[in-house]
Structures are given as C-alpha cells and as structure tokens.
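User: quick one, fold this
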Amino acid sequence: MANFYKIIERKIKMIHPSYAELTQRINDNAEGEQAVINSRYSICIATAKRARQLIDGAEPLVIPKCDKPLSIAVQELYEGKVHILPNEEIEK
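Assistant:
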C-alpha cells in the first residue's frame, strides 16, 4: 500500500502547470482582447504538435526540466516561447 501512495504522490507533482494556469498564462500573453484558448482540447492539440516536432529533431526553445517531449512542449507554452494562433490567423 505504501508503494501506491508513492506513485500517487509522484503523479501529483507531475501535473504542473495545471490546465487552468496554462490557459491563463497563454491568454495573458495573447495579443488583442479575445482569448486564444477556450478549451483544454486546444492545449492538448498544440502541445501534441510541438512534442511531435521535438521528437522529429526540433531543438527545445527552453532549458528542459526533463527529457520527455510532451513535458518540454508544455514548458515552452507556459514560458511563452511557443504561441497558439487563432484559426483566423492561420488561414491568412
């Protein structure tokens, strides 16, 4: 049972930043008045795409705290090194 609590404790530490923190940070850094991120889905898609770029050999834009591509992608988003563009800007 003690091992179970260690695993749970370790998983809790891995959830940083939370979706709420990440969403707030991204929207605070966005240009204009409209929020860029309205759902967790947008964050999941953006981090997955960036993680795929890292797996394919792209250089991290931050000093990584760990070696997992998805964690690096989240860190890049949180620190404002990678930006999510609204659909309107992508189509232009």
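User: anything notable?
Assistant: The chain has a mean pLDDT of 78.
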